[in-house]
Structure formats: C-alpha cells, structure tokens
Amino acid sequence: MKTGMTCLAALMAMTGAAAADIKIGATLSETGPAGALGDPQAKTLKLLIEEINAAGGINGEKISLVVYDDGGDPNKARTFATRLVEEDEVNAIIGGTTSGTSMAIIPVVEEAEIPFISLAGAIEIIDPVKHWVFKTPHTDRMACAKIFEDMKKRGITKIGMISSTDGFGSSMRKQCLGIVNEYGIEVLADENYGPQDADMTPQLTNIRGKDSVQAILNPGFGQGAAVVTRNVVQLGIKIPLYESHGVASQGYIDLAGPEASEGVRLPGTALLVGDLLSDSDPQKPVVAAYKALFEGATGAPVGTFGGYAHDAVRILADAIKRAGSAEPKAIRDAIETTKGLVGTTGTVTMSPQDHLGFDLSAFKMLEIRKGHWTIVE
Fold this sequence. Notes:
By secondary structure, this protein is α/β, with parallel strands linked by helices. Helix content is 42%, strand content 18%.
C-alpha cells in the first residue's frame, strides 16, 4: 500500500488522520528530474495543512493529507491518482508537478468526478475547460506572450529556440510557435534536447551559426535548462537568453551558477521578488507570510513551485469553507466561483469558462543580477 510513498509522505498521511473529516490527496514529483519542483510542493502542502488544522480546520473539520511520489513518471501518476480515488477515498486531489503527470491524472479525476488542481504549466490542462480540472500556474502560452512582449520592447525580431522534449517543453514550444508571428518575431532555428541530456552545445552551435539571431529562447525546466544556460556561456554566446517560468526558482540559479545565469530573463511570480513589491501590492503580505512559514520550517529559500502548491491549498480551503461541505461536487462548484483570492501567483477569479483565474498581468518579467532576482518592469 505504501509502495512509492516517501517517509515524509507517510508522515503527511497521518497528519490529523485520527479526527480528520476532509481528506486531500496529492501525487507529486518529489524525486526524479522534477524533484526540485515537487519536493517544495510536498513540504508546502504539509506545512499549510498543519497550519489550517492548528487553527481549527475548515468549518471545524480537520484535514488529512495523503501524498505519493510519482518521480515525474506519468504512468505512476495515473496509478497513484487511481489509488487516491479508489483506496484512499480523497475529497480532492492536488498535484501533477509536471505537465506530463498532470495530463495523465486528468482522465482519472474526470471519470471519478473528483476536483483536481494541477501545479503544472501546459495550457492543455485547462484549455479546453474540463469540468473537474483547475490549475494554479500561468499557462505556457502566457509565458510565451510575456517573453515576446519583452523581446519586442528590446527590438528583437529574430530568435533561435532550443526546447526540451518533455511534456512541458513540447507544449511551450508549440504555444510559442503558435503566437510568435503576432509579435513580428521570426524563429530562425528550432532545436531540441532530451530532459536527461548533459550537453546541448551541438544544438546551440547550430543556433549560433544563424548570423541574424538576436536572442535565444529555451522552453524547458529543471536540470536541462541549467545545462543550456551554462553551455551558452561556455560557447561564448553573447546574445540575450530567455528561459521559461519553469525555472523560476533559486534552484535554477544554483544549478546554472550565478555567473552563467547573469542577465537571463524569464517571466515569474511576485513570490521571487516579494521584498521589491510596493507596500500597497495586495500580494505582498501573502508572499511574506508564505515565505516566513516555508523558510522558517525548512531553512530553504521559498520558490515559485512551492507557491503553486500554496495557492492550490488556499483555493481548496476557501472553496470548502464557502461550500460548507467536503463533498467533491460541492468543492468543484465552489472552486469555479472563486473570486478575488490573492495568492503568490496572482489574484484568482475563476468562472465556468476559466479554470485558471488570472491574466498576463499576474506575470512579472524578471532578470537575474548577481545571483538575485530583479524586476524588469
């Protein structure tokens, strides 16, 4: 029964189990290529649910949490989602650290009629709208648009792309190619790499060979994106490098190195630049509270991906409170009517036509300077 369950997850499963009336399940990529994303998500879920239970629960009911580690494997994610539904009998599911695992979970929750909040970026997760599926991160199409807006401001009209072949990279590549012409930008080179590849210099050499290329865009996440960043510097490529929101964490800077990542731009969330927000920004206190909770408990820097889990828990808790019920249908209906909920990623207002709940304005264009995040705009 506990095969594939980490020790941390086992402890999570026991949190409030004796008196719990609400059961939340999760399948996350705590290990594997997306471990840097999934591990803080698992820790965030545990911390927030402990906090909610310590304050009396939701409408007087305590929450228990069951978490499985799918290692980034879509087949395992599907298996664990089925287990959460059939054996653990959860009221809702949070998870799908990656786009690939999220897409594998969707058929399970749609058939079982269990609300699911994804923590992954692909637009296909919520477009077209699926009755039981929601998500917290910006879509990859939104990330492309934010990047192309910035390129246009800088007078960049010709680029090279190098994309990861995993679910996230493939989806974002498709979305970027679908809208790039709207910004007057031409893709002169279109390369790719596998998520486990350790050297992308051949692909980057091909891009460098295009004399008119003015910038490089890398739709990818995790270790592969850090390798691309280091290889760009090793090859002496001086043109601007744009990464995706899939690397919006201190972990990326640490993997790539402060020197290699210097000047890299990417779309990110308020969470990474909380100290730079104005006091009037409604996200500032939310970001500060989560930062204090996570960093105080773990000693690790807060990051975007844990923030996605934070927002999912807040959306779910708000929905259950407003619904006055933990029945899956009641939760689903209440999530869909979420209005003005301030999270670390944006202010969420959902509808039957929108299961994400915010627009491009929730994104900030960030640039890395001396190993730290700065706001471009």
